Each structure stands twice: as C-alpha cells, then as structure tokens.
Amino acid sequence: MQNIQPLRDFDPFNPLIEGLDLSKTDVEIGILIFDIEHRDMLDKLYHLYDGVVGGRSERDVLQSLRKLLMASKQHFDHEEDYMKNLNYGDLQKHTEDHQTLLSSLEHFVVALFSKNGSNPRDLDEVRSFFIAWHTDHILEHDRMLANFLTQKGIR
Ligand SMILES: [Fe+2]
Ligand SMILES: [Fe+2]
Fold first, then answer.
1. CATH label of the domain that carries residue 65
2. Which ligand is nearest to the CA of 75?
3. Nearest ligand by distance to the CA of 144
4. How many angstroms is it from 88 CA to the middle of ligand 2?
5. Cβ burial, residue 134 (10 Å; 0-12/13-18/19+)
6. Calpha distance 65→80 (Å, rounded)
C-alpha cells in the first residue's frame, strides 16, 4: 500500500505553500482511496511548480500540466461516482466546484500554448489553483463528503 505523506512534511520554504496554514490544509480527508489520489495530485502540482520555477521548457511544463489535469479529472469523476451512487445531497455544488477547478487548469493550458517560456504569471496560476483546490475545495467540499462517507461506513 502506498504510504501517504502529509503536506507538512514538505519543505516549508517552498513558495507554493508559503503563508498557508498547513495544519488546516492537509490533503488527507480520512477516506483512503481519496487520500491517495489527493497525494498524487499534490505530487503532480509540485512537479508543475518545479517546472515553472526551474524555467523548464514550455513543452515540459505543458506535459506536467496535462498530467495534473488528467489526474484531477479522474479523481473528480471518482468522487462524483461515489456521490451519485450514494445520492449525496450536495452533488451539484460539489460537481460545479470540480468544473471550476478543471476550467482554470484548461485555461492555463491554453495560456501556456499562446506564449513562449514561463514567466511570473505562470507561478501565480499554479499558486491560485493550489489554493482553490487544496485550501478551498478540500476543506469545504471534500471534508463534507468525507463526513458523509464515514457515516456510511466507508473509510
Ligand atoms: Fe472534490
Ligand atoms: Fe478531492
């Protein structure tokens, strides 16, 4: 089984997480399969971040971004399947938030295509996605879903 590493074990000086309250922004929600998927998304997000900061070619950065987009789509579909199958009351709101997150990543792909090289605005895009997904989405929507699943006996 994959070992899940909490975010707080990462380098606290990484600018991607600078200024965020890590005790609140841990990606784990207590549902094993989703914790693994969240960790995988976070790894891909860090990889994307490293590519932008390290000035890797747009092609490399685009590839990292596409991997994050794929993993996000799969994870969101997975959560939505659980919500549909269990008649979860907040399915619509939660799904809308997934769509907002996906369109911000898709928008970023288009923006990267239309210019040469990474620049400071790319970092802002990565950081704002990170905050929207990690801090806002997980804390609000995913934790609420996790409570519901726990009540159904799913861990
Ligand atoms: Fe979600
Ligand atoms: Fe999630």
1. 1.20.120.50
2. 2
3. 1
4. 15
5. buried
6. 22
For the stretch 48-96, pLDDT in tens is 888 888 878 888 889 999 999 999 999 999 999 999 999 999 999 999 9
The amino acid occupying position 93 is K
Q: Which two tokens stand for residue 41?
A: 């998304």
Compute, in angstroms, the gap from residue 39 CA to the centroid of ligand 2.
10
Instruction: Look up the pTM and report it.
Output: 0.89
Rounded Cα gap, residues 51 and 34, in angstroms: 26
Per residue in 86-128, pLDDT (tens digit) is: 999 999 999 999 999 999 999 988 888 777 555 667 888 888 8
Q: For residue 11, give the H/E element and its range.
A: none
Whether residue 23 lies inside any domain: the answer is no
Instruction: Establish if 69 belongs to a structural domain.
Output: yes
Would 33 be classed as within a structural domain?
A: yes
Domain around 147: 28-151
Question: What domain count does the chain have?
Answer: 1
